[in-house]
Amino acid sequence: MVFSSPSFLFVFLPLFFLLYWISPAKLRNTIIFIGSILFYFTGAGNIAFVLLLSVPLNQWLGIQIRRLESSKSANLLLFIGICANLIPLLLYKYFTFFTLVTNDAASLLGIEGRLPVKEILLPAGISFFTFQGLSYLIDIRKRFIDPAPTVIDFGMYHTSFPQLIAGPIVRYIEIKESVADRKLTLEQVESGIIRFCFGLTKKIVLADNIGVIADAAFGLPPGQLTICSAWLGALAYSLQIYLDFSAYSDMAIGLGAMLGFKFPENFDQPYRSCSVTEFWRRWHMTLSRWFRDYVYIPLGGNRINPFRTYLNLFIVFLLCGLWHGAAYTFVVWGLLHGIYLVIERILLRRNIGTQNNIIGWSLTTLLVMVAWVFFRSQTVDSAWSYLLVMFNNSTYGLPLSIKINLTPDKIFFLFVGIVVSVFPVERVKSIFGDSAKPTLFVRVAAILFFTYSLTVLADNGFNPFIYFRF
Length: 470
Prior knowledge:
Elements: H1 6-22, H2 28-44, H3 49-67, H4 73-108, H5 126-141, H6 151-159, H7 161-164, H8 172-179, H9 186-218, H10 227-259, H11 276-282, H12 285-296, H13 306-324, H14 328-349, H15 358-376, H16 380-391, H17 400-405, H18 408-422, H19 425-432, H20 440-460
Helix pairs in contact: 1-2, 2-6, 3-4, 3-5, 3-6, 4-5, 9-10, 9-18, 9-20, 10-15, 10-16, 10-18, 12-13, 13-14, 14-15, 15-16
């Protein structure tokens, strides 16, 4: 079920929250748990058992790890828990890819014979709830948190439908105070509804319309792609993926507020960054912090020597690329960002840098856009062909298929998307007021945006969020 679908907006959402708000506080975790399972089951079907089985397993392991925390058995249980969470992810998401990699390696070595390639249906959001399960067990072992009081409480956290499919990656430590006892105020609910409405508009009106331009450009045969259409497509996709993903995060955070939770922010206008390091402090922040705390720092971080620091960055971003998708294109995307960060570290060690100025911003934006070409393309070869046109093509003009889609409304939404991405948000807050206490202007804007989004939805239908496949 998609947040922007009519079935969610007009059936699931009103029925669920009506039941949730009229129920006594002691039953609300149960309602979230059951409602989230139903939400997931409508899209995943029988494959939802992967998520269902992970609830009692992680809850039991968490309790046992805490009970045996002073013995070596706790480390063994943690290892078992890490494996138990990773095995479904490796099987469903990476088994086919690893088979293809093995076959490709065999071809390069001249080895005859091929392993059979079997397509496996991927459970939606498996990368997200796997990381939540891992952080839960690791934080218990480190004594940062106590296990959830009951399996219902943990199940409510682990399957919570607002952030189940595409984040933000909410760690138990971030909401532990609200699991067993939380107050739900009208101001909090109103703030959540407004955040949800703005997120819905960002998705349906901006991301989906800009995505039409990106799809038209990346869908062109290599012979028809021109330098202008290639750059336009790269710009459009860079905006689309940010607006699409941050829209989901806005809607998830808004829904969380309507439930009484404060979910962590996931984006902070990353296209304002003046370095790739800053970009990753602003882009998908919950994922960046997860890799920092559970991979980069345990590997040694930057505490050892420069070479190990660079190696750690490569490992982290190789895993980050694979986390996003089981394909060579995602591996290249991740390694590119690893290379960017290593070069930045080397330059900074030599007191060479272009941060916090127009040169740094321009270079960072260019590097990120280049990497997005690999992220968007189906193969590495097609991405490389696309980049060759961007940087080594003398054919200008726009093909007919681009002109057809580049209507005045699409141009307007493209411009608005750029403004939303780079205009200093702190100035917007000074105009709109404190989001915790929305002004009349904000309330009216939310109603108008929501109404307009519904008209666009009625005309164009809805598209899944890009990050649903991760």
